[in-house]
Amino acid sequence: MESNSFKVLALLILLAFFLSTAPSAIARLDPSEKTVIITNNHTNYLSIRCFSFDNDFDVVHLLPWGQYMFKLKRRVIYPSATMFNCSTNMGTFVAYRYDYECSKDEYESCDWRFDEESAYRWEPRLEIWTTYEYAPNYESLSRGGVVKDWWRLYGENGSGLLLVMLNGG
Questions:
Q1: Taking a C-beta distance cutoff of 8 angstroms, is the pair 111, 128 a contact?
Q2: What's the pLDDT at 2?
Q3: Could you tell me the pLDDT band of residue 11, with boundaries at 50, 70 and 90?
Q4: What angle do CA 117, 118, 121 make, to 5 degrees?
Q5: I want to staple 86 with a disulfide (CB 3.0 to 4.6 A). Which of 36, 47, 95, 159 is the partner?
């Protein structure tokens, strides 16, 4: 009777170990990296912050035609969970998804431009910029995105715009 209890206990310990390590196996990353390049397409200074489930980058302030680059690792299991969003003052857009044409191995990067109106993704196969309308910028309000770093203050007479940096962002 004791040997059966020992076997059941050993089996339960083995099962507990397997269940505790399964999430890390699901989240394991592919060694291949993909680069995302985002360019300020506007004639003015704009801010952007990119994030995913695993990474949370700082706010980056880009001068006109300034670029921001980051590398990501694609997931092996559940590749659809590899996704990066970018938040701007005007809204958010999905900067990387597993089903974008640029996510294929034959392309080095996923290239974006953004301005006050829209975001634009380069379609390498078609060789054109595709327009994406911004989604509402709930991320900036709830997670502290680009909105928290800059606050607009207007002069008493309503003329001029003064940008003041907050939180050392």
A1: no
A2: 64
A3: low
A4: 155
A5: 95
d(CA 77, CA 80): 9
Alpha helices in 77-149 (DSSP H): 138-143
For residue 86, the tally of other CB atoms under 10 A from its CB is 27
Q: Can you say whether the dihedral through the CA atoms of 129, 120, 70, 152 is positive or negative?
A: positive
Do 92 and 85 contact (CB within 8 A), yes or no?
Answer: yes
DSSP 104: S
DSSP 8-class letter at 18: H
Whether residue 50 contacts residue 38, with contact meaning beta carbons closer than 8 Å, is answered with yes
pLDDT tens string 23-37: 444 444 344 789 999
In the block, which residue shows the tokens 């900036």?
140
* 116, amino acid identity: E
Distances (CA, A) of 87 to 19, 21, 119: 35, 33, 11
